[in-house]
Amino acid sequence: MFAEFYTSRLSGTTLEKLEGVLEKKITVLSRSEVESGDVILKAAETGKTGFLVPGDPLISTTHIALRIDAKQRGIETRVVHNTSINSAAPGLSGLFNYKFGASSSIPFPSEGYRPDSFYHVASENKKRGLHTLLFLDIKDRLMTVNEALKILLDIERDKGLNVARNDSIVVGLGCVGSETPVFIAGRINDLISRDFGPVPHVLIMPGELHFMEEEYLKEFGGL
Length: 223
What we know:
Layout: E1 2-3, H1 15-22, E2 27-28, H2 31-36, H3 38-46, E3 51-52, H4 61-72, H5 85-93, E4 104-106, H6 117-127, E5 132-136, H7 145-159, E6 169-174, E7 182-187, H8 188-191, E8 201-205, H9 211-221
Parallel strand pairs: 1-2, 1-3, 4-5
Antiparallel strand pairs: 5-8, 6-7, 6-8
């Protein structure tokens, strides 16, 4: 039994609890081990093998490639689908899922490294009236909505494309899929100091709002 937690962190339970439920030892693989596929595929060639991932297994392109490799080696596979942040975030926020454009990720900036591709993705979506789902960095630690908003404001000051102004409406979500999710909608200057609860968090930058979407944000998100 294998697992990976680099596409998303394990939340709401622990590795030990999973092992207790399954009554099996779980080997956690690194990104490079999953991308090469050798460890999993060699095990699958000799016996029944499970691979646990957060969310829906085939949302990640790496997992799609792994299944293709298995097929080409003559290994039968079966996918157990699960909810994904790509569907859960629209569902929790009340924003129509068909109005989401391309999604992107906000990484932590560092010295000599200050990417802004996510800002331009949000800009292009906004031009088309589409919502943008932004995944927040989990590499070294879990980024909060508050940190993401500060990064966006910094880039806005440089680029000035009216993507993330102080009065821009955003939606912050925390612990999506848990029994106690956090859903707060409002303007950046109001939300930048709000408490979004325990991580992981995600951020949505809405495009043009349908009247029903706006009403939902007001009734349930406090807009």
